[in-house]
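Forum > Structural Biology > Help requests

Title: Can anyone predict the 3D structure of Regulatory iron-sulfur-containing complex subunit RicT?

Hi all, first post here. I have the sequence for Regulatory iron-sulfur-containing complex subunit RicT but no way to get a structure on my laptop. I'd be grateful if someone could post the structure tokens.
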Amino acid sequence: MACTSCSTGKDGQPKGCKNNGTCGTDGCNKLTVFDWLSNMSLPNGEEPFNFVEVRFKNGRKHFFRNSENLSLSMGDVVATEASPGHDVGMVSLAGELVRVQMKKKKVAPDSDEVLKVYRKASQRDIDVWQEARDREDKMKVRAREIAIRLNLQMKISDIEFQGDASKATFYYTADDRVDFRQLIKEFAREFNTRIEMRQIGLRQEASRLGGIGSCGRELCCSTWLTDFRSVSTSAARYQQLSLNPQKLAGQCGKLKCCLNYELDTYLEALKSFPRTDTKLYTKKGTAVCQKIDIFQGVLWYAYEGEWMNWHKLTAEQANKIIASNKKKEPVGSLEEYEVVLQLEENKKPDFNNVVGQDSLTRFDNPKASTGKRRNKKRKKRKGKPSKNA
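Reply #1:
Sure, ran it for you. Structure tokens for Regulatory iron-sulfur-containing complex subunit RicT below:
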């Protein structure tokens, strides 16, 4: 991580800013944008685009109108319009790249949803904002205690204060509909502020809380992943993975997002394979596909009634047999193709196991002593004085 609060200490221990991708120093933020148009000047007579993108806590981003023509750049802390009061955020993007982003996200510049920037945040605004953020952790613990006391089936995952500390948004997850009318009354009485409850999904909760995945790295959703695409069990089937929910599910309880990363490569490789439900008809009998290996490009078939004997074929050989079956041409047996495959494999040089490093028993047998070692031992014995001398 790049920011000073996330770097390691003198003893090598990680400090950790514990902001889960929303670091205030903007060095380890997953939503940091590189403005590749910053060094380009506008054509003569072209006015700069008077909109900016402002980032808030928990990955929340909105577009704002710079109606006051303030000189804003990336990293500036600004006070923006909110309902009610004002909010405090950091400018994440400015200039012509904002026009591209608004067009991509289909946000009209003349829309009523686009609010305006009031001013650059003063020291007073920043102090109030920081004091409000320091209260969030204590409030979250107290809010969970109140929800448990009221027997509500919900989990409060995070709290976000508005920049002027006039409103607090409680993010929660729940499986069913929750009646939190009494909860809001107690929250308003306990915390003395306006309360807004916002339900989020389990994936969004995992991205806010962060954590370590089964791969040993930080969760993708809390470090760099900004959009959540749907993941289905068919992605695991295409990659020949066992449909074990405990292994395929992430910390959010849903299927891991990384199942989609290599899916396109597998689908491209499977185009050269025949369908696994296609049977091969030979003179010896009918063969059914038992297993495929996408990396090696081979399939294993077994005759009906001889399920213990598998025969290894390449995808090209299997397609050739299927084409012969469609033309009703006779096919002898799978053994004929398997022998040809074995001959081809024997001709290929083995570069993987040159010095026998793949053998598990290479250290079991002790090495025989050479003649040099024997001669050294004999010389040592001759040089030692006898006990009788």
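Residues 79 and 88 are 5 Å apart (CA to CA). The chain has eleven helices and twelve strands.
Shout if anything looks off.
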